[in-house]
Amino acid sequence: MTSAGTPAGTRTRTRVPLWDNARSVAIFLVVAGHAVQRMALDYDPALAVYLFIYAFHVPLFVLVSGHFSKDRLELRDLRRLVTDLVVPYLIFETIWTTLQWLVEGNTTVNYANASWTLWFLIALLVWRLLLPLIAVLRFPLVWAAAAAMVSGYTEDIDSTLALSRTFALLPFFVLGWQLRTWRAGERWQEATRRTVLLVRIAAGVLVTATAAAIVVGLPFWREATIKYFFFADDPYVQFGYTEWWAGLLRLAVVVYSALLCLAVLGLLPRHETWYSPLGAATLYVYLLHTFALYPLRETGVLREAASVPGLLAALALAGALTLALSSPLVRRVFRPIVEPRAGFLLRRYP
User: What's the confidence (pLDDT) of residue 350?
Assistant: First the structure.
């Protein structure tokens, strides 16, 4: 796998720079969100940045993954799911289990509950297997949204095998695939300057209004439990919503996050940029950045650095990690565990 949700060797028929730019921005936001997370516990400016990022960054990451996924799976696609997702998950979960044992004394071995960011590999596996089934239905986005709503009502769908996030974020994956079937990227590339200007004005207003609402309403957001809908990792009852309309709140959050994703896509450059090549290495950044942040989180360095300079330093660190971990050297060194050659595990077919 060369990027988030993109199998090695897979290419779109028409290369659209927008998607490389989107992958690069999405992975930076993932790293940035983790870098400021501990600061956000006590420091309001960090919380504002954190909530703004979490309003759309994971949905954007999932949407881009869905854009590069197939609605028909052949034997080679199934084999690739094993080598590109299952084997790396087992490798990295083993590394994290060992690390937590050495550092924290945690002797629990549980491959059904993914460590930190590894939930995404499990979710991506399930999404890719589900997509061919959803794609044959009429109104696939409606079915995906319904699954997201209903799944939150039961405590049986939780973090085990990342099921809660898998269902809650399914609409974004399906939306990404739908955008490809609609050739949305190509049409955006061909859009007139006037259309682009109007879309970007509307997108800018939405993104700015979101940021302003977070900053102005920060006391509310610090106390409000509605923010947990953005995290999508627990059933409704876990954060105090037992009412029948809790699913409608999730639906509203999904729709709003989807609009933010589309707004960000509309604001991104349509042409090649200096950061476009980073989009080819997002999985390396995704899987490796946690090892760099782990000691800073566990020792309290990030939380104790809560200040304007500390927040800016954390964001700069996120940018530096994104650049460093997507470099050719890092990819060469860590390819055996990020993109392992696991073909020997598979049966041979004529």
Answer: 65
C-alpha separations of 280 from 27, 54, 330 in Å: 11, 23, 13
Residues 89-99: what's their mean pLDDT? 96
Q: Tell me the one-letter amino acid at 35.
A: A
Cβ pair 215, 48 in contact under 8 A: yes
User: Using an 8 Å Cβ cutoff, are 337 and 92 in contact?
Assistant: yes
Q: Which residues pair with 6 in a beta bridge?
A: 3
Mean pLDDT of 84-96: 96
What does the block give as tokens for 38? 């501990």
Taking the CB of residue 132, how many other CB atoms lie within 10 A of it?
Answer: 14
- The percentage of the chain sitting over the pLDDT mark of 70, rounded to a whole number, equals 95
Rounded to an integer, what distance in angstroms lies between the CA atom of residue 67 and that of residue 275?
20
CA dihedral for 25, 83, 66, 277, sign (positive or negative): positive
Question: pLDDT (tens digit, 9 = 90+) per residue, 237-257?
Answer: 998 899 999 999 999 999 999
DSSP 315-350: HHHHHHHHHHHTSHHHHHHHHHHHS---GGGSPP--
CB neighbours (10 Å) of residue 128?
24
